[in-house]
Amino acid sequence: MSDRAPAPAGPRAGAAPAAARAGTPGDIPAGIPADTPADTHCPYCALQCGTRLSRAADGAVTVRPTPGFPVNQGGLCQKGWTAPALLDTPDRLRTPLLRDAGGTLAPAGWDTALDTIAGRLRELRARYGPDAVAVLGGGGLTNEKAYLLGKFARLALGTSQIDYNGRFCMSSAAAAGNAAFGIDRGLPFPVTDLAGAEVVLLAGANPAETMPPLMRHLDGPELIVIDPRRTPTAERAALHLQPRPGTDLALALGLLHAAVAEELLDHDYIETRTTGFDACWRQAREAWPERVEAITGVPAADQRAAVRMLAAAGRRYLLTGRGSEQHSTGVDTVAAYINLALALGMPGRPGSGYGCLTGQGNGQGGREHGQKADQLPGYRMITDPAARGHVARVWGVAPEDLPGAGRSAWELLDSLATPGGPRALLVFGTNPVVSAPHAARVARKLAALDLLVVADFVPSETARLAHAVLPVTQWAEEDGTMTSLEGRVLRRRAVRTPPPGVRGDLDVLHGLAVRLGEPAARYPTSPRAVFDELRRASAGGRADYSGISYERLDSGEALYWPCPAAPGPGGARAAPHPGTPRLFLDGFAHPDGRARFAPVGHREAAERTGPGFPLHATTGRLLAHYQSGAQTRRIAELTAAAPEPEVEIHPDTAARLGVGDGQRVRVSSARGSTVARARLVATLRTDTVFLPFHFPGAGRANLLTGTALDPVSRMPEFKVSAVCVEPEPAP
Ligand SMILES: Nc1nc2c(c(=O)[nH]1)N[C@H]1C(S)=C(S)[C@@H](COP(=O)(O)OP(=O)(O)OC[C@H]3O[C@@H](n4cnc5c(=O)[nH]c(N)nc54)[C@H](O)[C@@H]3O)O[C@H]1N2
Ligand SMILES: Nc1nc2c(c(=O)[nH]1)N[C@H]1C(S)=C(S)[C@@H](COP(=O)(O)OP(=O)(O)OC[C@H]3O[C@@H](n4cnc5c(=O)[nH]c(N)nc54)[C@H](O)[C@@H]3O)O[C@H]1N2
Ligand code: SF4
Ligand SMILES: [Mo]
């Protein structure tokens, strides 16, 4: 069972899980009294399950689900239960490290480390200009960190070269959502609304493994699942469509075609709440389900059945995940799914809607506060003069002091150490040596830098390449806010003081900024002070947090953005704005209040199979590991559950290749090859193999993936590589 109830089931039923405790006798933190439980949230995914942490007198931290928190309703997945083990992982970073003359990372004091880094940054900037220094952030950073990182880059470094790993995650759905609805909030409704649906269509999402407690809300509805694999989510579906990887765009067009042909459209809704249907239909009219079957492998009858199920339901949702988004056609694919939802009259109706299942812990907030190449806080565009004026006022600088838009994450990584490209990179909250496409090329670029600085709490694969490593606090040691996949702002709370030698990311940014000549007051180190500034910076923007405060959150209010400081309905004397759990009920966020159909036609994936590389490889997640695995590969219970990379192969395909179950194989693409153990899966498509991307070294799935990008979102094509598979001799 992947989603465990409070009394943990499984091997340790009844007892508190051993791995849910961390801390050693003697490690008794000062400052925070023992036995004061703190209600906070899981350090991992965007579901942000409520967790109640307690710390015993011996320093051990225990976790249990926060009673009454509606999102996880008493459940946590294996990763959430075992998260405290990360706090005192044996190789936790506890002192800054600087690479010495002999090339070894050696311990250094904080002042030495920060002085050295600032000195090198100043030199590089003086010699090559401010864009010689780049920053890569992450969707796991709190809102406060993401905000201060963006400000630090634009002001202290003066660089345009900042982006973040959400580019690899959310960017396609964000672009399509903004275009269609005028605003990008992953779920424009609370997750608990899903439970009231009759039908939910999940396109390229596997929440049974990626957000197990979410399945509690999907127990009632009938599910339609679109996934090339028969995942645990698909096992629960009434209808499972199994397209060839990279063909969802055609499939979504086929579903729209079937809806038109079967006269299932909501004409009244299309007429009154949308624009652009005719142009959209002109692009989709050739997408006969039979034609789409030839492209996708999904039977025309199943396409029609799916559309009929959705259309017949009174309350229904269409949700996309990375399976349909991480493509060079990602934006058009999401747009085509949104077109279908609009044609059936779903978005902005009570009990129905479209949403994207945001992935990282703060994947939502991380894309709102200005760590993205083209953005300023409040989800403002950096190219918009009014946005620049507003943010410059809050920051106390002139608008012309703000740099312009920078490169997207992949383009940034690929430009490192090239003529005209950045010579230094500061990494906060991502591990691109494992998680970026064409990872071998990325590692080469990182190794060629004049300066690589990584702030992390573990020696990640990227940290190991750095010239300077800065040890930072972990979730249970810090305060802040996170914005979950439903747009709700949540408090992260400290339950213990950090180990000696470790500093918060806000302190690190402050320390570097003052050494670069910035006024100290510009970089507050208190999360609350940063949040209060973030509120002002976001005021009037698309993601308006100005009405949200730590006081309101701490009093237990459930606040979803937008939540402006201006009072809600009722005028100046009214209660503060209540926040917006459900968007679009009265209208969409475009000036005319209407949603936009997108005129999208069929395009193939950039990567094609061919004689040398006859199979499609797709990549994704396992229940037990999180992302690059930097965190979860350090937790014994999780490595025991998934110790090494396995590639899923259909038994017929394996037989043809002379590969047996459990045998080591080499999977190769035009970029390189990776080694994994074959796992034979009879429900998989015969033309497709699947690899998780959580493993390092020679087992990296990203040694295979390519560099084609979506033209709009700049999302890499993580979900389609053309590969061959061959038996690998034992090492
Ligand atoms: N256990 C675990 N949970 C996580 C994470 C984790 O690393 N581990 N990460 C978090 C993050 S950041 C994210 S973004 C989310 C991601 O959550 P999901 O989107 O659910 O995760 P993925 O496994 O990347 O992709 C989902 C499914 O897409 C399928 N797929 C592959 N190619 C295609 C295709 O062309 N079309 C369609 N329709 N499907 C395809 C895969 O088979 C896979 O089952 O999970 C979050 N939760
Ligand atoms: N092939 C393939 N590749 C993929 C994907 C895929 O589906 N297939 N999915 C993509 C997606 S959706 C995502 S989101 C990315 C994720 O991939 P990464 O961005 O590499 O994600 P993580 O492994 O979470 O890396 C976060 C790092 O930051 C550290 N960290 C965590 N919190 C903090 C903090 O508060 N401060 C600091 N300074 N450090 C912190 C962690 O210890 C870890 O080393 O991978 C992408 N790569
Ligand atoms: S589903 Fe996500 S938030 Fe919940 S316990 Fe698991 S990893 Fe943590
Ligand atoms: Mo993600």
From TrEMBL:
<dbReference type="Pfam" id="PF04879">
    <property type="entry name" value="Molybdop_Fe4S4"/>
</dbReference>
<dbReference type="GO" id="GO:0051539">
    <property type="term" value="F:4 iron, 4 sulfur cluster binding"/>
</dbReference>
<keyword id="KW-0004">4Fe-4S</keyword>
<dbReference type="GO" id="GO:0022904">
    <property type="term" value="P:respiratory electron transport chain"/>
</dbReference>
<feature type="region of interest" description="Disordered">
    <location>
        <begin position="1"/>
        <end position="34"/>
    </location>
</feature>
<dbReference type="Pfam" id="PF01568">
    <property type="entry name" value="Molydop_binding"/>
</dbReference>
<dbReference type="InterPro" id="IPR006963">
    <property type="entry name" value="Mopterin_OxRdtase_4Fe-4S_dom"/>
</dbReference>
<dbReference type="GO" id="GO:0043546">
    <property type="term" value="F:molybdopterin cofactor binding"/>
</dbReference>
<protein>
    <submittedName>
        <fullName>Assimilatory nitrate reductase catalytic subunit</fullName>
    </submittedName>
</protein>
<dbReference type="InterPro" id="IPR006656">
    <property type="entry name" value="Mopterin_OxRdtase"/>
</dbReference>
<dbReference type="InterPro" id="IPR006657">
    <property type="entry name" value="MoPterin_dinucl-bd_dom"/>
</dbReference>
<dbReference type="GO" id="GO:0046872">
    <property type="term" value="F:metal ion binding"/>
</dbReference>
<feature type="domain" description="4Fe-4S Mo/W bis-MGD-type">
    <location>
        <begin position="35"/>
        <end position="91"/>
    </location>
</feature>
<feature type="compositionally biased region" description="Low complexity">
    <location>
        <begin position="1"/>
        <end position="23"/>
    </location>
</feature>
<keyword id="KW-0411">Iron-sulfur</keyword>
<dbReference type="Pfam" id="PF00384">
    <property type="entry name" value="Molybdopterin"/>
</dbReference>
<dbReference type="GO" id="GO:0016020">
    <property type="term" value="C:membrane"/>
</dbReference>
<keyword id="KW-0479">Metal-binding</keyword>
<dbReference type="InterPro" id="IPR050123">
    <property type="entry name" value="Prok_molybdopt-oxidoreductase"/>
</dbReference>
<keyword id="KW-0408">Iron</keyword>
<dbReference type="InterPro" id="IPR009010">
    <property type="entry name" value="Asp_de-COase-like_dom_sf"/>
</dbReference>
<dbReference type="GO" id="GO:0003954">
    <property type="term" value="F:NADH dehydrogenase activity"/>
</dbReference>
